[in-house]
Structure formats: structure tokens, C-alpha cells
Fold this sequence. Notes:
- The protein is mainly α.
- It has a single domain, classed as Fumarate Reductase Cytochrome B subunit (Up-down Bundle).
- The chain contains four helices and two strands; from the N terminus they run αααββα.
- The chain has helices spanning 11-34, 41-70, 82-110, 135-170; strands spanning 120-121, 124-125.
- β1 (120-121) and β2 form a beta hairpin.
- α1 packs antiparallel against α2 (41-70), α2 packs across α3 and α3 (82-110) runs antiparallel to α4.
- The longest helix is centred in the last third of the chain and has 36 residues, at 135-170.
- The relative contact order is 0.13.
Amino acid sequence: MIRNSTTTWGGIAQAFHWIGGALILFLLGHGWWMVAVPPREMRFAQYGWHASIGYALLALMIARLLWRWLNAVPALPSAAKAWERASARINHWGLYLLILADAVSGWALAGTFRRPLEGTLFGLRVPNVVSSRDPAVHELLENSHSALAWALAALIVVHFVGAFYHLLVKRDGVMQRMLPSFARR
Length: 185
């Protein structure tokens, strides 16, 4: 099943979820590793690579949100309590907001290095949205990007806990709806 139904996520939504999740986890780990690398040419190259993957994630998230807007969204089980519905909604929209905000803050940060980053998206150069050599601007954007990444990581932990709560405690099939059909057993 490619499209979503009222009871499960379709293959496209699942692909957006799992590919996006893998990219986010990679970018979080890579970002924290990258800032620990001594400032040399290798570190600057890592920043450019990180930016390119971030641009791909931003494009994927925009496509994902368009897909979500144009397709059915599976309903939560009717037995779900009001707090569960509210926390699911807040968590998902919080994830979308933090992913987009962190990606945009990283994009803005790319234009504030002494030598601007040359990020690409599918082989095309991505223009910088901010162009400044002011160290205060760089520091503000770098701190914002880092704080958003930490907030995103925290919300991802909440998302994992919620998924496993549905899998192991509630046993209501909510987590399985995001799994490919061969993995739902």
C-alpha cells in the first residue's frame, strides 16, 4: 500500500519517516562528533558534508509535510485517552517544528563562517541565506543550531518512549502502523 489509509501509514509516509529518522540521527551524531574535531581543513570539509545532508533532510521534510497534507492521517485508536491524543499531536508537530527550525538555523549558519560553506543538494550549490562575517552573528546562529539540536534529541527520546509504550504496554498497534507490512507480525 503506497498511500495512507485511515488505519495505517502507507509506504511513502513510512519511507519519509524512516529515511528522515535515519538522517536526523546521523546528523545529530555527526554534528556532536564534528565539533570535537580539531579546527583544521578536515573539520571544515565535515561542516560542508553536514550541511549538504541537512539540506537533503530539509527537502525531505518539506516533501513529507506536503505528503501528509495531501493524504489521510491514520486515526489513533478510539480507546486512546485525551492526554495520549494531545501528547501525540504535540510530539509530532514539535518534531516537525524542531527539525525545520534546526535545518533552517544550520542553513543560516553556513553563511557566517570566515569562508562560507559550499553545501549542495543533489549536486546543485545551495545559496547561503545569511552572509555575515560578524563573529557575534556566527555565535548566535551556532548556539541556536546547537540548542535546537539538543531540544530535538530530547523530543526524539520522548517519541521513542511513546512508540515503545504503545508497543509494549498498550499493545494497541500504533507503532506497527509505521512499520512495513512484512515487519508488522
